């Protein structure tokens, strides 16, 4: 379902595509990372074009809870466990500068942004241990964190860590301002142009559904990189989570700060105007038995704690986690120094995307600051390797499970799934994905065109989702997101 932000009508017209045009920098993907990258390059006098497959901000950025905070749940201790203090310090410094950049930019561009305190709170003893660890690691990295038992939420908590004066906003307001400023500097933002490949020649050529364009450099800011060079799809963990907007909560009961739980399952909440916004139930893409049940569980949790609250909107979105918790930013291997990537914000992209965009620009201009150098030169420790190996084992398990289940479940010939449902099974020796949406039954090959995983039905978004590397397709098989470059095959392909 469309998020609260994407449902608000804004006029962000697309620029005209000029085939064979040449730019300094082509940016693939018009989310927060791509748009900030384009603006920063345009401000340095580069000619830029952003090429977006759908509409700007329509994936993770437009699904975001848009909490702009340097206190990020329990992220810092995760990074500390898997790397070392120097990387935590660099990550915090990058986020601090990104935070300041967004605050200053919102002010100058007239984006409505509200300052709020941020809390990571605990409801269990293990959560309290995480709260304490976040306090220790964050303080060491220079964050002005405070421990508190004064947590104004409608349920019992054991304590929290707080960072004053963070921020929240409507991410599409920021997107609209960025597009307008890129244009004012002569840059182009082209929508509905799907990029299918990039040749790292001199100049580089970007192949889009509207034609080819050329540039000195190409920046892939597409969530997971759309090119398989560097095998980033195998290093990233694709995760989905939900957003719920609830109305009819009395004003005095709406949260005055932004809260993130340190417990499992994860919960976050904040206020947006007269609505309560709740997020959580993060899970692996294509790995939940019912996404609709997870969404319902989150909404029911909110209704139980804010009596009288009524669901007005439920949506979900996708982000990517790296094995060490620090984004991948920089040159793409075998991209001849012409192709760059930025991904892996682990659900903290409101600062992470801006930090990454600043790194991309500094990489090209050769003015990396010390925190950027520390992130580029980080060593991979056994703890991060173990996380990566664990994810690879999970991928292998989901591959085997998907094929076994598909081949041992014969589909009944002519059977039509009920409205909003999808089924995977065997027709002859072929895994087939059959669904019914808006009265149309569609039968496709259930084999993901990326690397052969078996897709699973997402009963919340009515999409086919691949549990291996997170590619997603609509009911007719068209690519929505992920590393797959083409759609699911029809049965006659
Ligand atoms: C539910 C949810 C809640 C979140 N809440 C928070 C929060 O409170 N605070 C926080 O800091 N972070 C949060 N995040 C994370 C944050 O929203 C993301 O990290 C950030 O928006 C990622 O931005 P992006 O530009 O990298 O990706 P996206 O916004 O996904 O942009 C990538 C773009 O690339 C385009 N694209 C992909 N493939 C192609 C192609 N082949 N050709 C052309 N274009 C292509 C896509 O259409 C898309 O528009 C949340 C994320 C989710 C999912
Ligand atoms: S996304 Fe890689 S196999 Fe499906």
From TrEMBL:
It holds the Pfam family DAO. Residues 408-493 form the Rieske domain. Keywords: 2Fe-2S, Disulfide bond, Iron, Iron-sulfur, Metal-binding. Coiled coil: none annotated. This is FAD-dependent oxidoreductase.
């Amino acid at each position: 379902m469309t998020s609260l932000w994407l449902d608000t009508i804004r006029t962000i017209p697309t620029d005209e595509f000029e085939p064979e045009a040449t730019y300094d920098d082509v940016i693939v993907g018009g989310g927060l990372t791509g748009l900030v990258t384009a603006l920063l390059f345009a401000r340095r006098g580069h000619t830029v074009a952003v090429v977006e497959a759908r509409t700007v901000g329509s994936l993770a950025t437009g699904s975001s809870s848009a909490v702009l905070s340097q206190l990020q749940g329990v992220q810092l201790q995760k990074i500390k466990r898997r790397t070392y203090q120097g990387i935590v310090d660099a990550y915090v410094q990058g986020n601090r500068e990104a935070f300041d950049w967004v605050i200053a930019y919102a002010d100058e561009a007239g984006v409505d942004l509200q300052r709020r305190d941020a809390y990571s709170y605990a409801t269990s003893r293990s959560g309290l241990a995480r709260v304490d660890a976040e306090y220790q690691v964050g303080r060491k990295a220079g964050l002005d964190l405070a421990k508190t038992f004064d947590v104004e939420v409608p349920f019992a908590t054991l304590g929290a860590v707080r960072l004053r004066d963070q921020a929240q906003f409507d991410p599409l307001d920021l997107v609209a301002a960025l597009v307008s400023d890129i244009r004012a500097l002569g840059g182009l933002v082209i929508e509905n142009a799907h990029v299918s490949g990039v040749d790292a020649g001199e100049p580089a050529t970007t192949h889009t559904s509207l034609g080819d364009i050329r540039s000195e450099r190409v920046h892939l800011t597409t969530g997971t990189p759309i090119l398989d060079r560097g095998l980033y799809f195998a290093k990233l963990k694709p995760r989905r989570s939900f957003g719920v907007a609830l109305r009819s909560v009395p004003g005095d009961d709406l949260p005055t700060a932004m809260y993130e739980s340190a417990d499992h399952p994860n919960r976050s909440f904040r206020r947006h105007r007269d609505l309560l916004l709740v997020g959580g139930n993060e899970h692996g893409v294509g790995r939940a038995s019912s996404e609709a049940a997870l969404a319902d569980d989150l909404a029911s949790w909110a209704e139980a704690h804010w009596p009288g609250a009524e669901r007005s909107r439920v949506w979900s979105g996708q982000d990517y986690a790296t094995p060490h918790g620090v984004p991948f930013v920089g040159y793409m291997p075998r991209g001849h120094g012409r192709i760059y990537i930025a991904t892996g914000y682990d659900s903290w992209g409101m600062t992470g995307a801006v930090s990454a965009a600043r790194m991309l620009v500094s990489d090209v201009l050769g003015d990396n600051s010390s925190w950027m150098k520390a992130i580029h030169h980080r060593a991979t420790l056994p703890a991060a390797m173990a996380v990566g190996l664990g994810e690879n084992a999970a991928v292998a398990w989901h591959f085997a499970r998907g094929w076994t289940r598909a081949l041992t479940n014969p589909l009944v010939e002519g059977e039509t799934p009920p409205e909003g449902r999808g089924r995977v099974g065997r027709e002859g020796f072929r895994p087939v994905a059959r669904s019914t949406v808006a009265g149309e039954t569609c039968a496709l090959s259930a084999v993901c065109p990326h690397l052969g995983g078996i897709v699973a039905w997402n009963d919340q978004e009515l999409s086919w989702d691949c549990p291996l590397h997170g590619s997603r397709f609509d009911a007719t098989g068209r690519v929505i997101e992920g590393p797959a470059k083409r759609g699911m095959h029809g049965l006659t392909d």
